[in-house]
Amino acid sequence: MSDIILETESIGVVYQQSVVALENVSLNIPSGKLTAILGPSGCGKTTLLKVIAGLIEPSTGIIKVKGQQITGPGPDRALVFQDFALLPWATVLQNVAFGLRARGIPKNEREETSLHYIKEVGLSGFEDKYPHQLSGGMRQRTGLARALTVNSDILLMDEPFSAVDEQMRRKLQEDLLNLLKIERKSVIFVTHSIEEAVYLADQVVILSGRPGSIADIVYPEIDRRGDIDSIRRQPRYIELVDEIWGSLRSYVE
Amino acid sequence: MSDINNQKDTQDIDNLGTGIRSIKSDVLIWRIFSFFLVFSIWEVAGRADISIAFPPFSEVALAFVSMIFSGEFSEAYADSLPPLFIGLSITIIGGVIIGISIGLVRGAEWFIMPLLIIFQTAPVSALIPMLTYIYGISDTSKVVAIVILGMPLVALNSYKGIQATNPSLLEMSESFLASRLNTILFVILPSAQKMIFAGLRLGISGAFIGIVLAELLITPTGIGDLITYNRFIARYDKMFATIVSILVIAGLTLGFMRMVEEWLFPSEKNN
Questions:
Q1: CB pairs A-B closer than 8 Å
Q2: Which B positions 206-265 lie with beta carbon below 8 A of chain A?
Q3: B56 vs B52: which has the higher pLDDT
Q4: Do A147 and A178 fall within a single domain?
Q5: CA atoms of B246 and B214, how far apart (whole Å)
Q6: Which of A44, A151, B80, B133 is the most exposed place for a label (fewest CB within 10 A)?
Q7: Which residues of A touch B179 (CB under 8 A)?
């Protein structure tokens, strides 16, 4: 097992004193790997991600990044949003540079960094476009580039590809795997898609529904060194998708 | 990530953009036509001998020109414009500041909102004669009349604009470690811009209602007096010319606001 970069210790979230969204979630996130948080809708997986991001304060439990307890958002974590969360009045370049601008990085420097990541996510030539001129896939590439510019070790992705169509989702998944070969990030990826979780993740955390708690943790151990096209044809991939569906089925009622 | 799939989409949207721009040049023609239509109907109706108090457009236009050169307008507006200018400034600056403050500061909302809602919904013009008792026949009453008719609209719309900021953008800003000030400057204010300017346009219209009402009801000076006087001596052409002159000035002020908005926020989204 590799190093642990982030750990949660018995996280619980209670809304309005009575609605229990999360219960006793203890997790270890290995460094440099992709961890998928998988569960039926309403199981609190986005809540868990926002707790880890520091946007929601947990009712119980603590979160440690590299052994240090965190109390809010920090430079060690960057978020990619389900609804992209792009500023509609700002260009791709301005959106990508937002995190650096918020940190007071001078214009030349932040644009140089942003242009690098715009190129890396495949958006070269679209720097001056506005979000409404982009397709869903391109908007999420913009959101991803924005998260990369701030150079955090941990990338938090909240159902990032759920708002795009199936073909685009596959393309984005492939591109993400390729990108992670270059950028050594520890990724926490929230999804409701079993296929997506197995395809992308080194560790799949399965949450049960209401209140959300860990039902199972699966390690796909799929060989991703070769051609990424072949992943979906590996017997191990097909087996795992079936197995996870078996354990999730009981929660989807 | 390598290739780009949606070049075509983007081009389509660009073409749509130029389409909209060519429609825009047609808009001017339609606008001129609409004015022409209204003036023609006015001319016909005026000549139809409905009432002596309703002169045809041509007579009003002649009176308008003659009043410019006779100095009647300049004399009246010398009385009306200074309080209008002061009242508008207070309406705009005060309204935006109050609206933004109650949008940003918790608690301020409960403190000021009820007052604003009352001022927005109550027939405020009924309060105007009362101003005479408080401020007498003075420019102060005019300024107060303008402010109570204009400012609640500006403040309420600015407040609503701030409140309508997409919560997801606020989370995004927080997660990227933006300070509260940076969040306000880079996220909240640009997002509220359209509502704020919509409120300003409404507020300016309210301010013009305020000055005219004040001059008709309280202080017989300026343009209000010019309207009353000409009605009294049955110079209806001049009366209508005065009313038209107010419409022109209100229109110019609103046009100026649009220019300011375009200058402050020259964004693609405005197209």
A1: 97
A2: 265
A3: B56
A4: no
A5: 14
A6: B133
A7: 102
Q: Give the C-alpha distances (Å, rounded to integers) separating B188 from A50, A175, B116, B260.
A: 21, 33, 22, 19
Domain, as residue range, for A184: 4-76+154-251
In which band, very low, low, confident or very high, does the pLDDT at B21 lie, cut at 50, 70 and 90?
low
Nearest CA in chain A to B174: A73
What is the structure's pLDDT at A36? 92
The pair phi, psi for residue A154, each rounded to 5°, is -115, 130
**Domain match, A126 and A194 both:** no
Considering the domain architecture, whether residues A126 and A160 belong to the same structural domain is answered as: no
Cα–Cα dist B19/A86, whole Å: 26
Tell me the two tokens of residue A113.
Answer: 């960094």
For residue B194 the two structure tokens come to 């359209």
State residue A68 phi and psi, 5-degree precision.
-100, 130
pLDDT-based confidence at residue B4 (cuts at 50, 70, 90): very low
Other beta carbons within 10 angstroms of residue A36's beta carbon come to 26
Residues A199, A203, A206, A211: is their CA dihedral positive or negative?
A: negative
Of A35, A44, A46, the closest CA to residue A14 belongs to A44
Within 214-253 of A, beta carbons closer than 8 Å to B belong to none
For residue B6, give how far its alpha carbon lies from the nearest alpha carbon of chain A (Å): 7
Per the CB < 8 A criterion, the answer to whether B154 and B99 are in contact is yes
pTM as predicted = 0.81
Structure tokens at A105: 């990085």
Q: Collapsing DSSP states into helix, strand and coil, what is residue B106? A: coil
Q: Do B177 and A74 touch (CB under 8 A)?
A: yes
- The single residue listed with the structure tokens 């018995």 is A10
Contact yes or no for A137/A168 (Cβ under 8 A): yes
